[in-house]
Every structure is written in structure tokens, then in C-alpha cells.
Amino acid sequence: MKLAIVSPYPPSKGTLNEYAFHFVQNFKLKSEIEEIIILTDKIDESYPKEDSSGSCKITIDPCWSFNGLFNFLKIRSAVKKHSADVVLFNIQFLSFGDSKIAGALGLLTPVYTRMMGTPTVSLLHNITETVDYESAGITKNPILKSVYNAIGTILTKVILMSNVLTVTMPKYVNILEKKYGAKNVALIPHGSFEVPELPKEVKQQKKQIMTFGKFGTYKKVEEMIEAVEIVRDRTGEEMEIVIAGTDNPNVKGYLNGVKEKYSHVKDLHFTGYVEEEDVPRIFTESTVVVFPYTSTTGSSGVLHQAGSYGKAVVLPNIGDLKELIEEEGYRGEYFEPNDINGLADAIEILVVNEERRKEVGEANYAAAASLPMEDIADWYLLHFESLVKSPKKPENSKQIPINTSTSLEPVLIQ
């Protein structure tokens, strides 16, 4: 089988690039796949050359551009050129551009690839019905929110024209079935990128309080910094604050502003973009991982990474993230968004109580180990093989009832 994957891919720093990387690392081990064609965005750097080592050939074709207006045509042509048997889109609503027109046009691509006869699976990481436009830094204008909701509804209907649309959260399945009458939606969990042996906590002179991501919209670090300061005053503990990541593209310059505002804070470190090979070190050296979110836009890859390294986490008590915790078995200390004292309380519990920290970290490791990307890749292969053998139209397809319990069994569209 020749599998085409449409997604940003390292060294591209586009959203979901790490997810695509780990997809490829697991798909290339599957005997059913003879070649993976990565259809990724053009960047200034060079991508690795074609890799023919092992049983699976890997080809990287940077055939589209972020904010390009004709990506849907370019990707369609690339799928045809490489004679892909099936194409997987690893996308969210701004994958093809933060320009509204370019982003929307790019989302037409799954329809085009299916129309040309190539079985098409789209993994949609978020849906507009659960996005807080104000927190995400898109707009505060109520009229524009209504416009974006209407456009989002149209684009969701378009993406649902894929042979199969996969999502990572049961809540999304329920919305898509109820609102859109969708019959071709499958629940496949996010999965954990890597699950090493449960690491022992690195004993350091100063405990590290770390957060990881793209910041400035619904992920902001000011309250976390101030909360750690409170914990320092209360406990006398020596703690480093590590902000690992970059600005959200919608809020460029955000972290530089934070650096200036909190230049007086002791042991405050900003790592900048974290390369894939540095991710294990960042997590291994951390004592507690904090999620300073005011809302969420889907399943959290950072949570799965924290679990993979057996880390205790501090989480906001909000919708999607809390649901994910309960469904997949993760645990943490909760705080209410925008409550600095509550955030400080949660951090303090895990900093001073080693037994509690260990208990939460081990529970998160167990949750991560139960859903490795290797298994997630197998679930996708079931869909690929079914579609390649007998492609079906969504309107004629039947869906096996989706299990939304904590076991998250795979679901196959026939």
C-alpha cells in the first residue's frame, strides 16, 4: 500500500508537525505499507532526502505553501503523481493558512482527492463547535463569531465528504452525528508518541515547573509565573520556571513581552522552539507540568507526552481537557481558570508532596502506555485496508456503534 500523508512535517514548525512525525515512525514499521509519501509545506530549510532503508520507502514532497491559495490543486496533483492508494489528512482548521480564505480553500482538498478516486481519511483535531474564538485569539466581535461559526459549519460539511473522518474525542463524535447527521465518523484516540520505561524523577537542587506549547491565546503563562512565586513564598522551595515553546502564530511577540514584564523573576527560563530530539530531556528534567489554559481546542498532545514520561500535571478544570482525563485515565491536580491562588494550591500540592506526585505520575504513565501510537496506527490501517479494497461513499456507509467509554475501542466504518 502506498500511503500519502498531508501534514506539516519536521523540520517544518507548522501545527501538528510532531503528530505527523510520530505517525510516520509507526506507519513505516507496518508490513502492509510499502511507501509513505509525506505531502508537506514548503519551508526555507531542506527536508531529509528520500529514505529507502528498511521495508518502507519514505518520500517527502513539499508541494504546498502555508497561506497558498491553490494548495487544494497542488496536493491533488501530488497525490496523483505519486499514485497513492490512500491519503490521510492530519489537519485542523488553520492547517493550510491563518489567512481565512487560504485556510478555507485548503480544507477543500479532501473532497478533491476523493473525487479523483483516491480513498481519503481525514483526521480533524478540532471542531468549530468547541472553539472559543476569543480565547483562541481569533476575534472578540460577536458578529464575526457568528460568521465564523457559519463558515465553520460549511467547512465541516465539506470535510465530512472524506470517506472517513476521524476525531480524537467522543464529544466530537456526538456533535458531528447530532448536528450534521454524519455516518462516517470514527473515534480514534490521540495516542501517546513515545512510551519509554517509566523514568525515575531526576533529583535536582531546584524543582522544575514546566509548561510546553504555543502561547499567547488560550495558553498564557503570566498566571503560572505568579502562582510559582506564591508557592516559593509559602514553602521556601527553590523552583525553576521553564516556558518551553513559542508564540502562537496569532500573537507574535507575546513571549518577548512576558520576558520583559517578568525580568525580575528568579530562575525563569524560556527555551524557544523545542526540537524533537530535545523533547525527552525537557520532560524528564521537569518536576511538574502545568497546563495554564483558559480553554481548549481538542485533545492535548502535551498531556500524552507528560504521561509518557510519568509526570504529574496541573490542569484547568475545563470541558474537553477534563473529559479527556476521565476517559483515558489521566490524573492531575485541578484549578479553576484565571484563579492564581487556586493554581498555586495545585502546584504546591505536587511540589511538596512527593508521594502524591509519584502517584499521579505513575497513573499518567499507565494511561499513556495503554494507548501507544503503534496501536493507533493499527486502527488507521484497518480503515485504509477496508477503503482500498472497497471504497464506499459516506452517504451509503454504515457505522458500527462507537464506544465512548474509557476503554476507547477502535471503530471501523464499513
What does this structure look like?
- The protein is α/β, with parallel strands linked by helices.
- It folds into two domains: 2-191 and 373-396, Rossmann fold, CATH 3.40.50; 207-369, Rossmann fold (3-Layer(aba) Sandwich).
- 38% of the residues lie in helices and 17% in strands.
- The chain contains 14 helices and 13 strands.
- The strands form two sheets. It has a seven-stranded parallel β-sheet with strand order 3-2-1-4-5-6-7, with helices on both faces. It has a six-stranded parallel β-sheet with strand order 10-9-8-11-12-13, sandwiched between helices.
- The chain is globular and about 65 Å long.
- The two termini are 19 Å apart.
- The model is unreliable at 392-414 (pLDDT under 50).
